[in-house]
Specification:
This protein is α+β, with helices and mostly antiparallel strands. It has helices spanning 24-35, 37-49, 58-65, 69-73, 89-97, 120-132, 137-146, 155-163, 166-169, 181-194; strands at residues 6-7, 17-22, 78-80, 83-85, 101-105, 114-119. α1 crosses α8 and α3 (58-65) runs antiparallel to α10. The two termini are 19 Å apart.
Length: 212
Amino acid sequence: MDKLGERVPPGCSIPDAVVVVQSLSLLIKIDFWIRNPDYLADELLTEIEQQRQPPELLSRVATMIGGKVPALHRYPMAKYLYGAYERPDNALALLASLKLIRHVRTSEAARARRDYYLLQKGRDAAQTMRAEVPVLAWYDDQADAVGLIPETKMGSLTRRRQYEQPEYDQTPWGAIIPEITDRVRDRALRIAGRFDYPIEIEPRAVAAGNPL
């Protein structure tokens, strides 16, 4: 939220709100890309291939899918009615109880959109964590990469783009969305050759220890 939330408009009725993610759908779709570096890397390749991003971004892609990264950082999600889904209630309730965020329904209707506001206290907590736990910079880097995908501003557009991945689209409801690292590696090398921008992707390695 701190990285990808939209600045709240002047006169926002939520006290101390600094940014907002409009809709639970968008929040979950962003979460999917951050937790699945292989899918995020493939979207960056599309951005490079369609020349919306420079070939230099291939180096970032190589770090996302090389070495131990896929095993360390991939945290798969199941597919439900509208794509990747995992109930965020527990995590968000904890943040809300600490007054770091606030979520608000846009109306009294049963299917009303839910907006998620990061409060100033939450932003301060995030800054403190960045200073005290440098390894968390990985999440900032992932969020910055997600921000390069144009559809990230709206949940419906983000969902549509994620469904363009055949493995994602063909995953049955209730099943885990499969890893695509090997396919993305091959595609990255092909695109690197096409743009004459050589990259090295570390051989895939199994991570040991506790993932972060």
